[in-house]
User: Fold these one by one.
Assistant:
Number 1:
Amino acid sequence: MTPFTYARAQDRDEALRLGQGRTTAYLGGGTNLVDLIRETVATPDTLVDVTGLSNAIKETEGGGLIIGAAARNTALAEHRIVRARYPMLARAILAGASAQIRNMATVGGNLLQRTRCTYFYDTAGSHCNKRVPGSGCDAIGGFDRGHAILGASPDCVATHPSDMCVALAALDAIVHVEGTGGARTIPFTAFHRLPGDRPEQDTLLEPGELITAIELPPLSFGQTSTYRKVRDRASYAFALVSVAAALEVEDGRVTDVRIALGGVAHKPWRATKAEAALRGGPATAAAFRAAAVAELGDAKALRDNGFKIELVNRTLVAVLSDLAPVVDHGDRNGAAA
């Protein structure tokens, strides 16, 4: 482990001042960052503890929420407004990690967790462009069962590990950040990057910028939402595939819908093609499957992960069918539970 110094920021201004070092890292719950340091994937010379920043979860005038970046994942999942208005978010958080980790992990830190690709963590013998730019990607042609089927590049096929972020992408969340240049907001769907030829850059954050809050806009049909995670074992496993969805149906037709996918790309994947295919159409299993097929038209399987394409199809049909008030289930085609 590389030696480092530790400083605890008392407020936002002090955090920003302390965070301007070349290899400084902000420390929230540490549930991922400490692992990265232990494995020498991350080698900061200074850790700035920002757990003293705002952890408040407040309702906005319009009926949305502002969530302080230091709020713990457990507190967010248990919040009465989240459970009532955004159940997909509560369920996504509860699907992630263990209770002990959720008690420690912060909302801001969750956004910044890094891929769990085996090759990314193997500093002793694996090539990884995300860890060492320009070194290659041993996942391509290697053990790729859990890797991306959407948005990958010749330089990286890793997937984003967060459950919470999939729900936030579906909910059109907004990320509030501050740096020496002032405050700005970033739409959640733009916050994380696809790998392209710079897979080492996970987000649009500039050096020294600090996440201060996450904003959830109001969603009139957010109560009719859920999150489903398909994984190799029932607990403490990352998603092979996950779906966050909210559905509004009137007179048997889809009036509005939000869908995001996890376990399939370098970032939480907003399923805009599926949404467009569904809006205005019938709320039937056949329509749900057609929407899934439309979304996955550009999916590219690696050697061992082709099963994810059909798994997304079946999971998405199952989730939307469960959310719709009346659905012809005749062609769910063994949709994943």
Number 2:
Amino acid sequence: MRTTVRQAGRATGHLLVAAAMAFGMYLFITVLLITAVGTVVVIGAWLLPETVLLLRRIAGAKRRLTTAWTGREIPEAYRAIEGPLTERLRTAVRDPGTLTDLRWMAAYYVYGAMLVVALPLWPVGLVVDGVGCGLLRRRAVVLPWIVRLADLEAGWSTALLRPSPKALLAARVEQLSATRADAIAAHGAELRRIERDLHDGAQARLVSLSMRIGLAKRAYDRDPDAARGLLDDAQEQAEQALSELRQVVRGIHPPILTDRGLVGAVRALAAGSGLRVTVDVAGLEDDGPRAPAAVETAAYFVVAEALTNVAKHSGASEATVRIARMRRGLRVEVADAGHGGAEESEGSGLLGMGRRVAALDGTVRMSSPVGGPTVIEAELPCVW
């Protein structure tokens, strides 16, 4: 009986909030009428996009309320309302999400006040179920109906607020367009970095090497010792140029990934990081299938950037790297027990990681409360 009462109380709380929101929706009719009149007379046409944005916020609050009850998230799929007034009006009217919200709002005027049905069940349920459960040891009959009413209200809200396939497709296209733009920007920045490294590093070394060899050739007949010194300098310049070329190659695609795979490359990276790094691997056997090269490269750079941040900013002396194979992808997690408080604007490198991972349709999440710990997690979809 106690569990039944507790569940019915929680359901009543949900219906109470839903009823309060329904009452607010009745008041929202005034806003709709003002917007309709203003749009018809043209003078108040600017109200239409603002009203649609307000409706989106209300529908978003209802989605969160329903998610809290059902435990299943309801996705949102809206087009951004921005630009000049004509563009904002066009987007507000043509967005499929606007029709979805209006349809939900119209239905919510009817079913949003289920609280008036649930409240009379309480006195009846306390008497009937109190006697049935307390004296007759039977199952509750009346109070569970309050939970069913809350489930019904949440089910209708879920069905009405779920975006249409057209809206989901439009949102997906916008997301892919933004991801593609970020990938192109990241690719351009990477090419500029490689060009700069080659121009300022290896190329300058090779020019100096050529000059020293030329001077050595001129001095060889009259001053062999000076020529030998110049050749020694040229050899040192050649070794430095080779080292810088190797660094550039590693920035493009680390050769160790090809030779040892992701797990071996990450372990080598951890060994050379200067930190005490624990590498945990799940589902990636040495003789098992490997992820695509692009996925391995992105995962490797996520770990490299994260460990660099740990060494530079976190104040921690140890970190943990976890690599796990998922059914449809690869998950990489880097955690440290530093002082936390990392943000994108403070050089966490999350923006660069996000662009690299988003180009493969993956996601990056960072949790870094003040005082730690900091956890960076990347998920990369792939087919094994």
Number 3:
Amino acid sequence: MEPTRFRREVAGWLADNLTGEFAQLRGLGGPGREHEAFDLRLAWERHLAAAGWTCVGWPREFGGRGLSLDEQVAFHEEYAASGAPARVNHIGEQLLGPTLIAFGTPEQQNRFLPKIVAVEELWCQGYSEPGAGSDLAAVSTSAVRRDGEWVVNGQKIWTSLAHVADWCFVVARTEPGSQRHHGLSYLLVPLNQDGVTVRPIRQLTGTSEFNEVFFDDARTAAELVVGEPGDGWKIAMATLGFERGVSTLGQQIGFRRELDDIVAEAKRTGTYDDPLLRTDLARARIGLRVLRAHALRTLGRAAGPEVAVGKLLWAQWHRGLGELAVRARGARSLVSDGDELDDAQLLYLFTRADTIYGGSDEIERNIIAERVLGLPREARP
């Protein structure tokens, strides 16, 4: 379909459907705000699914729309521009689903993909651990084959949305005595069982959208390993590649809205009269255009240094935006009304994590240097 016509179709559908009880969802959800109207956002996403607007980039044979890259960009940008709420199924749709399409068995695809498309099962990502952080190769969670099942023991941390998820894709060490990225496997583990404990972690913002997850003889079927046992590093890296895909263009529409709100707040409070703040706001506007240009330049590419730096670029930019938010609000940003934080304070506090979650900047730079550019390894203790 011609791109402009397709944009009109998406925009028209959203305008017609973000009405009634769904109208109150505009602008809700997203990082730091996942607690907002979660049940209604889940209902909205199932409404999207019924109309065929989930998993739009997946091939048709797996339940998607098979949209071209240009159409996917149009969908994500129009979705964000409409003010529609943040998606609750993004981990299943954008991370696990593409991973199963690329590496899963037909049985795994038939079991899990239809329920992701229909938003009937929600997923979380079991990567980080207390003793490993962003260093995925240092995981110690273990899994052993026993009586036709994997028995999983260990702990994951910073597990976003685990408290509402039904399943977790877990990177676990399945080869005793193995080290680093060797001997890892990528397992699909149900969370609704006695061997799993999920404990929300209270954040600076006062909310609890990520969790620590304990596996104590948790079990999953032997066939629920993606790829072969020992392929976990390769599969996990592929998942991270899917994470930084087309949807980031929609993310940038949200960034633009945040920046517009900050400029409006600066004009309202009078801080816009500060030439230094005006200069930094202009730089932020230029930086946002750079983010978009970079995303478009790397669209559809799975590897290369340009692709690898995408997370570094937006994380640094967005953290800086949080600082601009409190500068624009002025001295009032230093106090709160009881336990309630305003939008500027929420943005500032949560963006402290942007350069940490999804792979810390330090680890990202090492990966780019060593695995993408082929530079000598950094000295390790």
